[in-house]
Amino acid sequence: MSARPAGRRRRLFFGLPLDASLQAAVGTAVRPHVRGRGRRVPPENLHLTLAFLGAVAEDRIPQLAALAAGIAVAPFTLELTRLGYWARPRVIWLAPASVPPALAELAAALRERLEGAGFPCDARPFAPHVTLVRKAGRGPAVEAIPPLSWPVDRFCLFESRTEPDGARYVPLACWPLTPAREEEGDD
Ligand code: 2AM
After folding, report:
1. pLDDT digit of tens for each residue in the chain (187 aa)?
2. Which domains does the chain show, CATH number per domain?
3. Which of 68, 78, 151, 157 lies at a 20 to 30 A Cα distance from 8?
4. Is the CB of 13 under 6 A from ligand 1?
5. Residue identifier of the C-alpha nearest atom 15 of ligand 1
6. What pTM did the predictor assign?
7. Closest ligand 1 atom, residue 49 Cα
8. Which are the contacts of 94, defined by CB distance < 8 A and separation ≥ 6?
């Protein structure tokens, strides 16, 4: 009996994509406040991670797509404003002023379904952020920028590809957030 050949593995995560105009706006807004050494995330790579999967056999991608397609969460808006620094991973990040319930619900629904389907997720609590700089030597010069509004209407499965000039995050598929259906009146 021959063993099934190991499928190709891909490095995957679910996340929220920023439109090109918001990627550019974030780049412009934070540039003056980032000091010292570090690797800035190129604007086209800016995103917010919902659930990191790591290396996954590519024949399991349809299972991930089916699981994502079953999630029904309403669209929401994030106000990107808080700038911060995590000394351990040495990243400078941008985060929303607050976490709308729909964002928490989306991340929780994804993680629950992933765990249920045998995709272990990061056990750390969900701390939504957009990483701006990696290997940063020091934190940002200010703790906040004027809020940038981010209307979120979809989430995506991304592949993290390693290319000669660094990582590139490529959306493989996206799913729309669906407005809550109006409750039917009972009169
Ligand atoms: P970060 O931006 O805070 O570094 C792709 O690597 C994305 O998945 C990044 O946004 C990264 O978060 C996130 N991620 C979460 N856990 C990770 C891990 N254990 N290894 C690499 N990336 C991780």
Report:
1. 445 456 899 999 999 999 999 999 999 999 999 988 999 999 999 999 999 999 999 999 999 999 999 999 999 999 999 999 999 999 999 999 999 999 999 999 999 999 999 999 888 899 999 999 999 999 999 999 999 999 999 999 999 999 998 899 999 999 999 987 665 554 4
2. 10-176 (3.90.1140.10)
3. 68
4. yes
5. 52
6. 0.93
7. 10
8. 26, 30, 80, 81, 82, 83, 129, 130, 132, 145
